């Protein structure tokens, strides 16, 4: 039984560390990486980066070509002020903000679930048949 507790202690995750990661890097999924939720962390990271890139390109394009004539429809859509790309970036970042806020309430639950995984080995629950 001591071995079981020793191995379990090594898997513990700190609630405080999870919330620090959530607060500072939560929009990029850092707290989810820390807790072992890699799939959802990668989704958060990809969406946040995509939203930042889209918003940055739209803002740069607006500043760069503000008041200029556009040569093509693609330039108009991507680089004109208040572009579709800017709206998409804002929508993605707004959605990530909502997800980040919801994760603030859910991080404690994720830590407890992560810390309770493997507490009782399957061999104790269902003994092997001879």
TrEMBL record:
<dbReference type="Pfam" id="PF05154">
    <property type="entry name" value="TM2"/>
</dbReference>
<feature type="transmembrane region" description="Helical">
    <location>
        <begin position="12"/>
        <end position="30"/>
    </location>
</feature>
<protein>
    <submittedName>
        <fullName>TM2 domain-containing protein</fullName>
    </submittedName>
</protein>
<dbReference type="InterPro" id="IPR050932">
    <property type="entry name" value="TM2D1-3-like"/>
</dbReference>
<dbReference type="GO" id="GO:0016020">
    <property type="term" value="C:membrane"/>
</dbReference>
<feature type="domain" description="TM2">
    <location>
        <begin position="12"/>
        <end position="53"/>
    </location>
</feature>
<feature type="transmembrane region" description="Helical">
    <location>
        <begin position="42"/>
        <end position="63"/>
    </location>
</feature>
<dbReference type="InterPro" id="IPR007829">
    <property type="entry name" value="TM2"/>
</dbReference>
<keyword id="KW-0472">Membrane</keyword>
<keyword id="KW-0812">Transmembrane</keyword>
<keyword id="KW-1133">Transmembrane helix</keyword>
<feature type="transmembrane region" description="Helical">
    <location>
        <begin position="83"/>
        <end position="102"/>
    </location>
</feature>
């Amino acid at each position: 039984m001591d071995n079981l507790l020793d191995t379990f202690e090594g898997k513990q995750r700190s609630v405080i560390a999870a919330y620090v990661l959530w607060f500072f890097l939560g929009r990029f999924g850092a707290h989810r990486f820390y807790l072992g939720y890699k799939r959802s962390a990668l989704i958060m990271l990809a969406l946040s980066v995509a939203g930042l890139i889209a918003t940055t390109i739209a803002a740069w394009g607006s500043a760069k070509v503000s008041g200029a004539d556009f040569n093509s429809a693609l330039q108009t859509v991507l680089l004109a002020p208040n572009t579709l790309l800017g709206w998409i970036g804002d929508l993605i970042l707004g959605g990530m903000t909502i997800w980040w806020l919801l994760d603030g309430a859910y991080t404690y639950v994720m830590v407890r679930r992560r810390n309770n995984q493997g507490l009782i080995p399957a061999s104790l629950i269902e003994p092997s048949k001879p």
